Structures are given as C-alpha cells and as structure tokens.
Amino acid sequence: MSTASSSSHRHELANGIKAELPIALGVIPFGLIYGVLALAGGLPPALAQAMSAIVFAGSAQFIAAQLIGAGAPGVILLLTTFIVNLRHLLYSASLSPYTKHLPARWRWLLAYLLTDEAFAVTVLHYDGETAVSPNRHYYFLGAGMTLWVAWQTSTAVGIFLGAQIPASWSLDFTLALTFIGLVVPVLKDRPNLGAALSAGLAAVFANGLPFKLGLMVAALTGILVGVWLENLSSQQKESL
Predict the structure, then answer these.
(1) DSSP string, 161-207
(2) pLDDT, position 201
(3) Could you state, in order of their start, the residue ranges of all structural domains in the chain?
(4) In sequence order, what are the residues at sequence separation of 6 or more whose Cβ sits closer than 8 angstroms to the Cβ of residue 152?
(5) Residue among 62, 64, 31 at smallest CA distance from 159
(6) Which single residue of 6, 34, 87, 179 has CA 20 to 30 Å from 197?
C-alpha cells in the first residue's frame, strides 16, 4: 500500500468519525433507555447486550423489548421488527452505487454497520462530493464504527446502571430529537417529504392499536407513499 493511499484511508476514516460523533453522542441516551427497557421486558443482561451486538438496530430493539414485555406473540414480534427495518432496503439501494464495486467482505461489513445515523451522514457526504475518492468506503466505515461503539457502550451502561438514572432526566425525549435531526436534512424533495408526513400522520391515527402495530402501519404508509411519489416524479421527468 502506497503512502498516499494510506493517507487517503486515514483521511476518509477520520472524516467519517468526525461527522458521526455529534449524532453518536445523541444516541447514548437512546442506548441507556434500551438497556433499561430490555431488562424490564424480561431479557437477561447477556441476551439484552447480545441483541445490540447482533441485531444492531435501535428502533427494532426498542420495539422488540416492549413487545416481549407485553407478551406479544412471536409472529407479531418478527413481523413488526421486519416491517420497521424495511427502510434499510431503501438505504441499501441509495448506497449501492457507491459500494457495488467493493469486495464481498467490505459489502457485508458495511451492511452490518448500516443504521439510520450512519446512512444519514454517509449519503449526504457522498452526494456532496466534488471529487470522488477511491477510498470513500472508509468514510462509511468510520461513521458506522463510531455509532457501533457508542451503541454497544451505552447499551451496557443502560443494562447495568440504567435503573439508577432518575426518571426526571427524561432521557426518552432524546430519541425524538435524534430522529428529527436525522430526518430534517433529507427532506429536500417531494417523495421524502411525503413519506415523512404520511408516516407521521399514520402513526398518530394508529397509535391506539395493540402490540405497537401502529408503528407497522406508519412504516408501511411512509414506504408506499414515498415509492408512489418517487415513481410519479420519474414519470413526469420522462414526459418532459
């Protein structure tokens, strides 16, 4: 490996870490809360931590912990978390043009590290590039690993110390703030805006459904509206 190539690797990795750090700090309370909820739902500490390491999907873990605590049937648990995580297919499709040339080991690693937070900073960086770096995947790696470390650490702290955190701190509010910070920068066109608004409205109206099924309804609504508007935009461009 040449000195220039090694320097480029480090540069991209460092930039990915720096871009992800502010979001990773906002995710820490999210991890603390998950640790507490997992134990409250009846998960042993080792299994709760293993879920963070294996699943590594905060929203799905939150939903799973609550459904387990509510005694939801296994099929509801699997279907709900599957629907909620369908958005990762859209993330993958967006990043595929930037990663399809990589060896399989890299694609598998980056797929594992793909989260809402890592996707947000990575796709914005890639879309805004003025010069394409052959080592741009290290930016993705830096962002993903930063979030991974923050999530595993905060989950562990939540499992072992979270019960001692005063409820008055209202850490659960940081979850909403984190996702607002992720969503707002990408609401630049009609499909994204329509998907966000329709999913939000669906979540409000379906909030009373049992077993958190309102989240499934909201996720499906947002996906369908977003895809429909994207296809509509494409047809309008082709007709011009």
Answers:
(1) HGGGS-GGG-TTHHHHHHHHHHHGGG--SHHHHHHHHHHHHHHHHTT
(2) 92
(3) 3-171, 187-240
(4) 49, 52, 53
(5) 31
(6) 34
| Gap between the Cα atoms of 127 and 2, Å rounded | 27
Gyration radius of the chain's alpha carbons: 19
Single-letter amino acid, residue 27: V
- Res 114: pLDDT: 94
Contact between 96 and 122 under an 8 Å Cβ cutoff? The reply is: no
C-beta separation of 224 from 182 below 8 A: no
Average pLDDT for 29-40: 83
Model pTM score: 0.72
Residues in Cβ contact with 52 at an 8 Å cutoff, skipping those fewer than 6 apart: 31, 34, 61, 151, 152, 155
What confidence tens digit (pLDDT) does each residue in 154-213 have?
Answer: 999 988 876 666 656 655 565 566 566 656 666 777 877 888 899 889 888 988 887 667
CA distances from 114 to 17, 96, 230 (A): 14, 12, 23
| pLDDT higher than 90, residue 215 | no
- Would you give the end-to-end CA distance of the chain in angstroms? 48
Cβ-based neighbour number of residue 124 at 10 Å = 12
Highest mean pLDDT among 2-11, 30-39, 48-57: 48-57
